[in-house]
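Fold in tokens:
===
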Amino acid sequence: MTDSSQHSADEAPNKPSKGIYVLPNLFTLAALFGGFYSIVMAMNDRFEMAAIGVFCAMVLDSLDGRVARMTNTQSAFGEQMDSLADMVSFGAAPALISYEWALKGIGRWGWVAAFVYCACAALRLARFNVNTAVVDRRFFQGLPSPAAAALVMGFIWLMNDMGYSGADVVWFTFAMCLFAGLTMVTNAPFYSFKDLRMKKSVPFVVIVCIALAIGVINIHPPVVLFAMFVMYGLSGYVLYAWRKAKGLQTSVISTSTDEPDEEGLHK
């Protein structure tokens, strides 16, 4: 090989390698740790800390997507990572914790309820990934998995705070798991809050209201948080019934799909 050809080879540009954005995935990993932490706490009979771990995972999960959009670091890897983390933190963790706290006391009925919740969370996340391009972004199709986890874990946190054991409210826990799980796979529309723009300026009163909301939550977090998510969990059914009564479209699908094999997912 001549010197000139060697020089040309040395100067050949290398193809840039595709990397992974650190910042949004750092939030996703932190949310995943919250779910893992909650499972570990439940194994050690520290159910209050288990509930707090899931709620922390919710906060972090709500931030990773917003951070990615604000920093223009969205990626297919991040989307898949987020779904897998959600399955652990809001699917497997609440199911396992509710079983460990109360449901194991009723034998097969207990693990059936826990599995139904876990399976519905997986179905909800899979349908969400498929329907991203066709669902009205202002609404979720079915209860989002973080809110479903908040219902189950908020109930456990509240009952534990009031001094009740899992055995005392086992059938209420059973009903809560079924309600939260099945609501995830309904077609009821739940407001997504995605049309709230973080970059836009807002009136001063909005900041005051946010401060008041934080203050109210701090009065007694188990009661306030559980009440908030119960209202949110029922809001989809109320909105569905209101639209039905008014003769409005109840589906949140904004456009048709070109994939007939998956048509059933969009209705």
